[in-house]
Amino acid sequence: MSVATSARSMLVRASRASSIRSLGSLTAVRSKYTLPDLPYDYGALEPHISGQIMEVHYTKHHQTYVNGINDAQEKFAAASTPAEKVALTSLIKFHGGGHVNHSLFWENLSPANKDGGDPPSGALATAINDSWGSLDNFKGKMNTALAGIQGSGWGWLVKDNTTGKLSIITMPNQDPVNTTQFTPLVGIDAWEHAYYLQYKNVKADYFKAIWNVINWKTAEKRFS
Amino acid sequence: MELHHSKHHAAYVANLNKAISSPTSANTQSLIHFNGGGHINHSIFWNNLTPASSPEAAKSAAPTLMQAIEKKFGSFEDFQAKFGAMLLGIQGSGWGWLVLKQGAELDIVTTRDQDIITDGATALIGVDMWEHAYYLQYLNGKAAYVENIWNIINWKYAETRLKGDVQGEFKELKAML
Ligand SMILES: [Fe+2]
Ligand SMILES: [Fe+2]
Question: Which residues does Mn(2+) bind (chain B) (predicted)?
């Protein structure tokens, strides 16, 4: 099961579990979200993303989203009125989105001496060429979209679930991609914490460098 | 501080001037709003800060404001706790503000990204909660950044803003946002 599928099904499970609890018919033990295993070492993406960034990003930032979603869901389950539950939805979206987005992101990356940076092949390569003419042209467009984010957010290469067409979208803060409409293929974290220790304010260099560690094999699996 | 001022603030200024002088792209208005807001917010922010050893960093430099804070929040400590919790609750990039609302009541509010204080309210103190404001020193530990920033707040400047008429600042720019 891909991370995308498992993250989605976790959210589905979570919403189902809470609606059951709200009926008061079941006191199920809800499984807590946990950090997914990182498929490489912290330093394995150097020099493109530093080991320090990876370690803080994974053990601190992602962990905070995991803690946040667990905490919010606990409070949601304990809330007795609809108003209390509604007040928690923004926290659930933020931390749940942060967990989903980062889980997809880690799988998107691979060391440059493994799959990182190897261009896509097959149907995905064809689809990218159809939409943007070339992989380089696509990267340029995606980097422009990333650089244009005003604040914190993410850039995504997505497939439209109805038409199959590819597009580039950006999402603010930790808003997750709407997976009813789109399948996220490649996500790039444009929060300052994703690059600041290494690239400081020169985020354009981060966006250029990250393509050296993008795992297109993951994108191909999500695409098909 | 150096990067924040010489790179980040400078980029807002440069991009604002670019958007104003060559308004060609479809999102010029959004660029002016964002970069103009970034320029205004950072301009207030630098004045909000002062060395911890300076007399302006003492709460006694803002007697009227301290009275108003106690009236609104019960005590300075309650204000600090509420303001801190609000800052740490910002989801993404943004700012936290102590403002004087129309009708002369204090309030604490957040603005997202580089949105500015509007609706006739006056910004008294602004705290930059973008990650670039603290990341090199505090990493993800933004609670420590918030705790420590209290040591370098320029209370004299906040008092001046409370008493003075600062509605006119950045008037032309604000009209363009
Ligand atoms: Fe992140
Ligand atoms: Fe800033």
Answer: 4, 42, 128, 132
What are the boundaries of each domain within chain B? 2-176
**R_g (Cα) of chain A, nearest Å:** 18
CA dihedral A105, A107, A113, A116 (to 10 degrees): -60
CATH number of the structural domain spanning residue A207: 3.55.40.20
List pLDDT tens digits, range B68-99: 999 999 999 999 999 999 999 999 999 999 99
Task: Give me ligand 2 centre to Cα B77, in Å.
Answer: 26
**Into how many domains does chain A fold?**
1
Mean of pLDDT values over A2-17: 41
Chain A positions touching chain B (beta carbons under 8 Å): 56, 60-61, 64, 90, 94, 148, 150-153, 172-174, 191-193, 196-197, 200-201
Kindly tell me if the per-residue pLDDT of A47 is higher than 80.
Answer: yes
Which residue, among B7, B33, B42, B91, would best test binding to A if mutated, counting the most A CBs under 10 Å from its CB?
B91
Does residue A16 lie in a domain region? no
Residues A66-108 have pLDDT tens digits of: 999 999 999 999 999 999 999 999 999 999 999 999 999 999 9
Is 3.30.565.10 the CATH number for B2-176?
Answer: no
State phi, psi for A168 to the nearest 5 degrees.
Answer: -105, 125
In a domain, residue A10? The reply is no
Contact A17, A30 (CB under 8 A): yes
SS3 per-residue string spanning chain A? CCHHHHHHHHHHHHHHHHHHHHHCCCCCCCCCCCCCCCCCCHHHHCCCCCHHHHHHHHHHHHHHHHHHHHHHHHHHHHCCCHHHHHHHHHHHHHHHHHHHHHHHHHHHECCCCCCCCCCCCHHHHHHHHHHHCCHHHHHHHHHHHHHCCCCCEEEEEEEECCCCCEEEEEEECCCCCCCCCEEEEEEEECCHHHCHHHHCCCHHHHHHHHHHHECHHHHHHHHC
- Residue A56 is assigned to a structural domain of this protein: yes
Q: Can you tell me the distance from the alpha carbon of B53 to that of A5, in angstroms, rounded to the nearest whole number?
A: 55
